[in-house]
What we know:
By secondary structure, the chain is α/β, with parallel strands linked by helices. It has one domain: CinA-like (Maf protein), CATH 3.90.950.20. Helices cover 42% and strands 20% of the residues. The chain has 6 helices and 7 strands. The strands form 2 sheets. It has a 5-stranded mixed beta sheet. The radius of gyration is 15 Å and the shape is globular.
Amino acid sequence: MNDKTTENGITTPERRVVDMLIGRGMRIAFAESCTGGLAAAGLVSVPDASRVLDVSFVTYSNDMKVKYLGVSEDSISAFGVVSEQVAGEMARGVCLASGADVGVGVSGIAGPGGATPKKPVGTVCFGFCIGGEVTTLTARFGDIGRNNVRKKSVELIYERLIALLSQEK
């Protein structure tokens, strides 16, 4: 089906997240950079997404991360925009800006440019804010192509959301 409910009779991760959020009475918002809205689009492809999503942000520039999400300019300077620190601030900031219970922040280097020796193409940092508690992680997908990095990032987001929401009481 094209509505992201099932694939070959198996419930999709996006559907699972929507169902988990509905069951917990929670709202979600995304703060996306390198994924450019793909994570939110995945959720919106599920019927009932409007029951859990009010707003999301694509903040591609550093200035917009600061302006709309409250990311600290000092964090960007000290850690770089592709860092767990910034991704965590994006996740917390999108919760504050939207009133959501769950916030996801993602910033990375999809390529082909933008890499540094310490942060090669395919480096993506994630922040998850649930009930005010922030967790972060970094994935290194490698130089697998720009859109594959974005796709793998979204897959990781949904896998991690399922794991984190499973722990929520």
